[in-house]
Design a protein that fits this description.
Two copies of one chain form a homodimer.
Chain A (H helix, E strand, L loop, with lengths): L25 H9 L5 E2 L12 H19 L9 H12 L10 E4 L1 H13 L5 E6 L3 H9 L3 E8 L2 E2 L1 H13 L4 E6 L13 H14 L2 E5 L23 E6 L11 E4 L2 H15 L4 H13 L2 H26 L4 E2 L7 E5 L6 H10 L2 E2 L1 E2 L12 E5 L5 H28 L14 H5 L1
Helix pairs in contact in A: 2-9, 3-9, 4-5, 4-8, 6-7, 10-12
């Protein structure tokens, strides 16, 4: 028995083994920094909800309370409101997905779908294959269930099929069990790249023949800036894909509504896991969103969001061209993020305190890897600040980066280049960076 | 590797070991039955939300959208809205709890707090001590993290301290690790009994000296029918109690808002686990509830609920006296439930199809035990149906019970009494019981 506490926590010895993977993420700590008004935050992933007319939400709420108030205030079902699931089918049809209303499980944001799928599949030590880099809070969830994450290389066209084959072979040769491939194939977070259509087909085929489930996370697909987004991987493979969707980016995160579209047997287990975790997602927010989708021009509203984010993407790419022409970065065709590569000898994490001092914030690349990679990478978000602020943020960032490079050059004239810088105290930056 | 599926589920061999504990609960199946209008359902635990004036919710929503729309539609923090946490302190003060606003973590209903606490503490094989009988979906959560539940006996005054001591000694003698005691001390679900003040002190002391955390779940405390409810166990012990509260019964479940009040180090881990699971609880519903609490007579509204449920409790106890005078049952001083003991040779689970045929539903006692106990018990809910329906439901129930007893008497005159009846197909009653 380990019933022994310490001076700081009398319950120290009581926690489950899985809590070893729970630590404050770099992105979480940055929320505090980013909230100071003088800082241009290119760090968070907050959608620009002010582009959603509040009257539309109010009108939907009023109709719900008038027509179905008692039901909307009551417990719902663990699978979610049927009327909302009908509308979700319409949303997914825009990306080529055909499914039935019974195939959907509504969740408390797609984040909770991610948590529930992980709870259903991961034994301690099981392997999750994931893009390198990957969405930071997905990595947190996998760790919290003691999964081992093995990153698969990607380039400007997304996951590299040959790297996936190699990863599968290597992990299995080590005697480990792969449970699923986690991917954000369209306008990925954080890389801002999109898996090509040919690769989608190839990766689905690799996973099918290898008996590996695909967890396709698609929060950004409808926020495309040019032409149309590629169809979802789920559009070509039903039995081997769990698809996650959300209303956080096409409507608003405050509703906390997302969904999983899963093969029959998995979906049944997801419903049970959802009921155990929260009994049901919020009936009230489900009713409001269902009413909004049935009575508003929601496609037009998504078009408005696309326009807002396209303008901000353009502002960011132009500013990068103008202020940091020597660096390289991705050119997202949709979504929220640009992924920037710094010179090899720069460390984005240890540079962050200096950036915040210069009143600009970003997310260091290491946050998006489970294996310590990404040291000279950073994620820049163009979703929340206005174009002018984005440009000013990039200008400030260029000052910081150029200052660091200068320092390194000076340093390298008198001493060898330091390969490993001291770890910064990322776990609580606001206290140190005032 | 176990990458082998079967004809029904190609991913059969992929699930985590913990999914072995996931199965459709008896209460879940009953939702389908209870929703048919001709059935008097004494089975569910749905609060009577029609007693909440919709105008109050509408007014709160309007003010939120007018004053703080963009914030309410955005992501929130993993700990929850500070303004809401301030009000939660006022709510808990009614039951003698003193705490700080930083000690609270807002969750997606108190159900999610239960899930998160279990995720934080339970390794497979760890033991949870729990009242016998216990809240059914708590048992589901514990099983879903592979906890072993050891029931502690209770009587009309709640948990029996001597039984708790014996349980602790027995479990530890078997070399097992006890992680916490789960209890609903006030107006318990399903037993409808309340832990006396003397026993609260004694049980807190037993747990303190034994190094066992107390998980105090208190959804019903403010729904008292006589005098005042006893103060919470948390009011006398800070470091050893995690207290769970909810707005589902004092306001409405559709908001999906509850909370955990936990010692410092545990609370920090709860916030991280909450962020991993859902990023944040719904900002929108948090803002609405905070606004409602700051501008409405919420204490008066809880008084209205008390009046509604008191009348229904009285209707149920009177009807039991009138129609089933030979049985015994608990006399709840608050909450939603009466726990009925049938004659030893009756089996409430196998009797249920007959009851539904007679258009009355209840929850069989075995649902509330992890160990197969409760065969001749049943939970009756008085929260949702009107007094007239409650009386009619009990009348129908008496017909069923008397019919069963008659059958058994006839049977026992020609053959020995069957001790084990064939298992009924509880997992899907509606299809069989039309």
């Amino acid at each position: 028995m380990t019933n022994h506490g310490n001076n700081l926590d009398p319950w120290y010895g009581h926690y489950a083994d899985r809590t070893a993977g729970l630590a404050a993420s770099e992105v979480r700590a940055l929320f505090a920094v980013a909230s100071r008004p003088e800082v241009v935050s290119l760090a968070g992933g907050m959608p620009f909800v002010s582009a959603l007319p509040k009257e539309l939400v109010k009108a939907a709420f009023d109709r719900v309370m008038c027509d179905q108030g008692a039901v909307a205030l009551q417990y719902g079902s663990g699978q979610g409101l049927p009327a909302l699931r009908e509308h979700i089918l319409e949303v997914m049809a825009l990306e080529g997905i055909r499914a039935g209303v019974d195939d959907i499980v509504v969740t408390t944001g797609s984040q909770h779908a991610l948590e529930l799928v992980t709870k259903l599949f991961i034994n301690p030590g099981d392997v999750v294959l994931a893009e390198g880099p990957s969405y930071v809070t997905a990595l947190t969830v996998f760790k919290s269930f003691q999964a081992e994450v093995s990153h698969v290389a990607m380039d400007d066209h997304g996951l590299i099929p040959e790297s996936l084959r190699e990863s599968i072979a290597r992990v299995r040769a080590a005697g480990k069990t792969i449970k699923f491939l986690y991917t954000v194939p369209t306008f990925s977070n954080p890389a801002g790249v999109t898996l090509s259509w040919e690769r989608r087909l190839e990766i689905v085929e690799i996973c099918r023949t290898s008996g590996i489930l695909v967890l396709e996370d698609n929060p950004y697909g409808l926020l495309y800036f040019e032409g149309q987004p590629p169809h979802a991987m789920r559009s070509v493979e039903e039995d081997g894909v769990i698809y996650l969707g959300t209303f956080s980016k096409t409507l608003a995160p405050g509703f906390r509504l997302g969904w999983a579209l899963a093969p029959h047997a998995i979906r049944e287990k997801l419903i049970l896991a959802n009921e155990a975790a929260v009994l049901s997602p919020s009936s009230l927010t489900q009713h409001i969103v269902a009413e909004y989708l049935s009575s508003s021009d929601w496609r037009g509203q998504i078009g408005t969001f696309r326009g807002v984010y396209r303008e901000r993407r353009d502002a960011m790419l132009t500013a990068l061209d103008d202020y940091l022409p020597d660096l390289s970065w991705t050119h997202p065709a949709g979504g929220f993020y640009v992924w920037v590569s710094l010179p090899e000898n720069l460390d984005s994490k240890s540079m962050l305190p200096r950036a915040v001092k210069e009143l600009v914030a970003y997310t260091p690349g290491t946050a998006f890897y489970a294996d310590g990679n990404g040291r000279n990478k950073m994620r820049l978000s163009f979703c929340y600040p206005t174009p002018d602020f984005i440009r000013e943020g990039i200008r400030r960032l260029s000052t910081v980066i150029n200052g660091e490079l200068e320092l390194l050059t000076t340093f390298s004239q008198t001493a060898p280049l330091p390969v490993q810088r001291p770890a910064s105290s990322m776990s609580n930056p606001p206290a140190n960076l005032g």
